[in-house]
Amino acid sequence: MNLIGHLACAERLPPDARLGAILPDLLSLYDRGVRPIRLLQGSGGGAAARVLRDGVRFHYHVDSHFHRSPLFRDGSRVLRERLAAAGGAPGLKRFAAAHVLFELFLDHLLVAQDAGHLAAFYGALERRGEGALEALLAGLPELDWGAFSGFIGRLAALRFADGYLKRDGLLDRTERILARLGQRRLEGRERDALLEAMESQAATARRRLDAFLLEMQAWRPPAAEDAPAAAEGAARGSTPGVDSGGPAGLD
C-alpha cells in the first residue's frame, strides 16, 4: 500500500505507531538506498521508539497481506490489461505501472471520501519533533537525522498528500516513480485508458478497500520474542523495487 492507505490501516494504533506505519515509505521517498526493515533489528530508544518500531512492523504486515489480496490482484490486473490494450510502445513494464498506480488510486479513494485522512497524515508528520523518531532512526547510522527531519517538514509545508485528490495527479506521480525505475512516460492514450479504468472499478475497489481496512485494523503487535520472525515473513511478501518506494518527488 501507499502512505494514506498504511495510515488508514493503522488508525486504531497509538499515534507513534501510526507514524511508524508510514515510516518505511517516508524513508524510501527520501532515499531509496535506505533499508527501513533494519529498524526492526534493534531494541533501543525507549518505550516511545518501541511503539514506533511496532508501527514499522505493522507496515510490512499490511504489505504482505495486501499484495496477496483480491483488492490488489484484481485491481492492478484491470489497470495492466487496459495498459496493454492502449499501447504497445516498448520501455514500460506494465506490472510496475499498474502496481504503482493502483496503490496511489486507493489513496485517492480514501482522501476523496474523507479529508480527515489528510489531516491524519500531516498530524503524523508533526510527531517527528517529539524525540522518539530521532531515537529510533539512530539504528540507521547512514541516515542524516537533520536532513530527513527537514524533508518531512517540506512534505507537510507543501501539502504533499493533497496531490492524491485528483486522478490526473495520480498519473503524474506514477510517471515520476516510473522514471525512477527506468521506465518511459505514459502515452496519451495510455493515460486516457487508465483514467477510464480507475473510474470503472472505483466502486468495487472502495468496497474491497473498506473490508481490507477492517481486517488490518484488528492487528496487534506480536510478542517481543515473535517479532523478528513476523517481520522477516512480512518482508518476504513485498516486491523489491516497488514496495515501500513511496511516491516520487516533491510537488
The chain-level mean pLDDT equals 88
Strand share of the residues? under 5%
Kindly state the number of beta strands: 0
- Largest sheet composition: none
Name some characteristics of this structure.
11 helices, mainly alpha, 251 residues
Question: What would you note in describing this structure?
Answer:
The longest helix has 30 residues. The protein has 251 residues and is mainly α. Helix content is 66%, strand content 0%. It has one domain. Helix 1 packs across helix 6, helix 5 runs antiparallel to helix 9 and helix 5 crosses helix 10.
Annotate the secondary structure layout.
Blueprint lengths: L2 H7 L5 H16 L15 H21 L3 H17 L7 H20 L2 H11 L5 H6 L7 H13 L9 H14 L7 H30 L9 H10 L15
Helix pairs in contact: 1-2, 1-5, 1-6, 2-3, 3-11, 4-5, 4-10, 5-9, 5-10
Write a compact overview of the structure shown.
The chain is an all-alpha fold and 251 residues long.
